[in-house]
Amino acid sequence: MTLRTTIDFLLHDWLNTSALTERERFVDHSRETFDAVLDTCERIAREKYAPFNRLVDVEEPRTVTEPDGSLRVVLPAATLEAHKAYAASGMLSAAQDFEVGGMQLPYSVEAAANAFFACASVSIGSGMLTTGNANLLMTHGTALQKEVFAKNEFSGRFSGTMCLSEPQAGSSLSDVATRAMPDGEGFEADPLGGRYRLKGNKMWISSGEHELTDNIIHLVLAKIPDADGKLVPGTRGISLFIVPKKLVDTQGALTGVRNDVALAGLNHKLGWRGTTNTLLNFGEGTFPVGQGGYDGKGSGAVGYLVGQPGKGLQCMFHMMNEARIGVGIAATMLGMAGYYASLDYARNRPQGRPMGVGGKDASQPQVAIIEHADVKRMLLAQKSYCEGALALELYCARLVDEHHTAGGATADDARLLLEVLTPIAKSWPSEWCLEANSLAIQIHGGYGYTRDFPVEQYWRDNRLNMIHEGTHGIQATDLLGRKVLMEEGRGLKLLAARMTTSIAHAALFPALAVHGAALAQALQQVAVATQKAWATGNPTEALANAVPYMQAFGHTVLAWIWLDVATKALEHDPAQSSPATQGRMGAARFFFHYELPKIAAWLSVVESRDTTCAALPDHAF
Ligand SMILES: Cc1cc2nc3c(=O)[nH]c(=O)nc-3n(C[C@H](O)[C@H](O)[C@H](O)COP(=O)(O)OP(=O)(O)OC[C@H]3O[C@@H](n4cnc5c(N)ncnc54)[C@H](O)[C@@H]3O)c2cc1C
Q1: Angle between helices 373-405 and 408-443 (to 10 degrees)
Q2: How far does residue 470's CA lie from ligand 1's centre (Å)?
Q3: I want to staple 581 with a disulfide (CB 3.0 to 4.6 A). Which of 11, 342, 439, 573 is the partner?
Q4: CA separation (Å) from 229 to 179, 223, 422?
Q5: Could you report the average pLDDT of every consecutive run of 10 residues in the chain (621 residues)?
Q6: Does 471 contact ligand 1 (Cβ within 6 A)?
């Protein structure tokens, strides 16, 4: 099975994506147009991404100092070629309206198409950030902001960043300290948006500096001080600004004036090295703009307000579901890349002989290691984690389409289901497809531990995903502290109803009935644990074991996904005659036999509100 056949099965046989073409927004599309997009992305990924995955890891971004003292980033030529090919494919504006040059593509197809790039070379391109940035402006920006900034990002002429984190404000964005002050008389009348001067430091900014595009459009969270010059505590005071690296006029043309945004340095990362990661100084006077500013000599980065003051985080969070599904897909595809590499290796590496009742027969040739039961266990674990995660991501992507285009109660249900499932869509592949990468290394033995094989890079690249876009602990707190409780637990009930429907369908197949019963029991265990965690109403106790809760919740969700996928596989091939069906049934069985039983241990500490970790004092460590 290839990635393409797996995606085709999930998109078409399982999720019936072609049915979306009956909706007004997608009426110009068909199975053929969806396939054409997948074909194009698969080809570009194969030609422009995959061959350079190791190169961008080895030749990580570096800086050279320019005569004016500023730092210039040097990247391999292949990165520019990949960027150009991606932009030319139209994927930067895949979801946008035809009239603004987009493809009006369902998000589920866009997400599936982007999977090919993540599998081929996750870090060579930064298209996801540019698209997220421009999509945000299309929702919250003014007409001119869309025209000048977003459209130039969609064409690939400009690229985009998301500047949230600061050295002292990572998980806790309420502590953002970058300030924005009105830029003199008439600041509100600037046609590009209320004009401010920003000053502060942004840490960890992906693609924060490079020369792949004519300009870089930073979206920056900053606080506008109150009348006393103080920053409002908490997230309420956070506003959002467009801060271009180079200033532009109302036509989007570069004015020749550099904005006061300076690269302080690059972060040298464990993996994901094809993308620059930067510490940016805003407004320190490195590139003064005109007069005035913070020091009267032009210091302060020029920024244009997006949306209302104080509503910056809401604008950012508007894009959160898709951003987190994007992270989940990246994690999944890195796992999948490792699975394919280790499967190939296992089929070709002769080592050892089978152990029969009379012991081993040394006169016989060695077998390929895929013949060993333990290697099969490691392969099946990877397959069940990665193909299961891919199905989950595409299911969530389909919910995004339902939310945007189904209308009525269906759209609202999709919104609420997404609220509950998004922490899982982001975190589950980040943890378990990383584990898949570890198993891929194990299958390679000593060779897997060297840089002669790609699997160690996949693991290093994947290690990021539990950290960014809300760390694991933050996602878990969000799930147990907010998502399962919101709207009186309606999201959890909706999810339970979907699972119950799947269990009923699966019951028609004797091979799946037992798995359906196991899922029903797991669902009951999660419901009881949720209730017991909150039995005292004390968040400190309830949330002390939020991560084990998220692990159990995630495993239950994945068991459901596998049950539903296996049901569809059997509907198409009841005799299990094709290798694809045999593989899917094997992976589903693996998940139910080896993985789902783990939830009992995770939930036991949740239910008893175990404080072993929470209560141990600092000095006892
Ligand atoms: C390669 C890379 C790319 C990135 N790209 C971007 C980008 O483009 N734009 C951007 O704005 N940011 C970006 N980030 C920043 C990323 O989002 C932050 O690293 C992340 O939010 C965590 O912040 P921190 O690193 O300050 O860790 P901290 O917030 O200091 O957290 C450290 C650890 O403490 C724990 N922790 C912290 N708070 C809590 C809590 N409340 N409950 C439980 N546990 C907690 C977690 O285990 C966490 O892993 C990137 C980071 C990396 C490494």
Answers
A1: 160
A2: 6
A3: 573
A4: 10, 11, 38
A5: 97 98 98 98 98 98 92 97 97 96 97 98 91 96 98 97 96 96 95 98 97 98 94 92 98 98 98 98 96 94 97 87 93 98 98 91 95 98 98 97 97 97 98 98 98 98 97 98 97 98 97 98 98 97 98 98 98 98 98 98 98 97 98
A6: yes
